[in-house]
Amino acid sequence: MFLSRKGFRPILIERGADVDARAKAVEHYWSGGELDERTNVQFGEGGAGTFSDGKLNTGTKDIRIRAVLEEFVRFGAKEDILVNAKPHIGTDLLRSIVKNIRSEIIAKGGEVRFLTQLVDINTENGAVKSAVVSSDGARYEIDTDKIVLAIGHSARDTFGMLKSKGVKMEQKAFSIGARIEHTQEFISNAMYGEAAKILPPADYKLAVHLENGRGFYTFCMCPGGYVVAAASERGTIVTNGMSYSDRGGKNANSAVLVGVTPSDYGSDDPLAGMYLQQEIEKRAFEIGGGKAPCQTVGSFLDKTRKNEPTTVFPTYKNEACFTEIGGIFPDFIYKSMKSGLLLMNKKLSGFAANDAVLTAPETRSSSPVRLVRSENSELSIHGLYTAGEGGGHAGGITSAAVDGIKAAEAIARKG
Questions:
Q1: One-letter-per-residue 3-state SS of 382-410
Q2: Per-domain residue ranges for the chain?
Q3: What is the DSSP letter of 317?
Q4: d(Cα 74, Cα 355) in Å, to the nearest integer?
Q5: pLDDT in tens, 124-169
Q6: Distance from C-alpha of 236 to C-alpha of 280, rounded to nearest angstrom
Q7: Which pTM does this prediction carry?
Q8: Domain 2-169+370-414 CATH class label
Q9: The dihedral formed by the CA atoms of 394, 225, 234 and 12, expressed in degrees to the nearest 10
Q10: Which of 111, 178, 272, 371 has the fewest CB within 10 Å, making it most exposed?
C-alpha cells in the first residue's frame, strides 16, 4: 500500500485465497472437513492476523505506530483504536478491512495474484533477477530486481527454499505451550469484582520466572473468544485464539507458553526450531487421534483427578478429545507448564482451577527462524527484503505493519 502511494506498481503474490474464499475454506475445516494446505488460518489474504482477536497493542515504540492505527480506521476499523490502551479490531471486522486495503492497491495500479506461491528466486551476481512463482500447477517468472518477503511465521517450505539459495538465517528463540480456557464470567469477576457487571469483558496478562531459568507467560489473551484449529499441514494439530469484535463468547482463552531457546534444539541447523514445532504438532495429532488433545488443569497437575469438563467446556473450532497432553511436549516444556501454572495461580487466584481446560499445542507464537538483514531490511541477496513476523524481526499485527513500512521506505529511497 505504501509503495503504491509512492508511484510503484507492486505485484502482491499471495499463496492463499482471497479473504472470502479463505473464510469458507477455514469454516469447512473447523466443521470437520479436510484441511486446505493452500488456504487456512495461516495462509491467505491478510495472513494469520485475519483469524485472530486483531489485537493492535505492541511493546515496541515507533513513530509509525500511529500511522498504522490511522490506516486501520481509514479502511474500516472503529475510531476507538486510536485512544484505547489495548486496541483490538476483531476477526469479523478484519476480513472487510483487508479487502478494502486490497482495493486501494489495485486502484493505484498494483496487482494481487491469489493462490500463487513464490517457489524460487533467480539471481545474477548476488542480486535478484526474477521471482519464480507457481499457480494452478504452472510455473512462470516475474522479472524484478526487488522482492519483499512478508511470508509469515508458518511458510516452512519458503524457509527451506531460502536456505537452499544461501540466504543467511539463524536460529531464534520462541515459545511453546497450550491454550487455557476459563469462563469469561470468572475472569471478569476475578479482575473487576462487582464492577464486572458494568465493564467490558476483562483480559489479563501474566508472567512468571521459573526455577529452571525459563519464562512462562500468557500470550494473545482473547476475552469472550474461541480456541481455533490453526494447522497449515495435514496430519498436525495447532491451536490459536481469536475473538469477534464484540468479544461475546462464553469463555476467555489465552496461550500459556514456555520460553524455548536454540540450546534446546539439539542441532545447529537454522531450521531446527521449525522441525521441533513440526514434531510436536504431529505428536498432538497422533495422541488425539486427529482431534485436538484437551485436559483439565486439575488432571494435568494431578493425574488422580478426573479429566472431564465440568463448568468449562472447550471452544476449539473443530473436534477435541480429553486425554493426557503431557506426552505431546518435550519433558522440559511439560514440567515448566506444571510449575508455571501453579505460580500464576498465586498471581490470579483460580487461574489453575481444576475445571480450567488446556487445549494443545500452541506452537506458532512467533517465528523460530530469523532472516539476517541489514539496517535497510535487505537480506544477503541484494534486492531481497524481509518484513513482518516471518523474518523474525516483528511480532503481532502492529509491529509487523511497522516493519513493512520500514522495508517499503528502504525500497522507495533506492527508487
A1: ECEEECCHHHCCCCCHHHHHHHHHHHHHH
A2: 2-169+370-414, 173-362
A3: B
A4: 43
A5: 999 999 999 999 989 999 999 999 999 999 999 999 999 999 999 9
A6: 8
A7: 0.92
A8: alpha beta
A9: -40
A10: 111
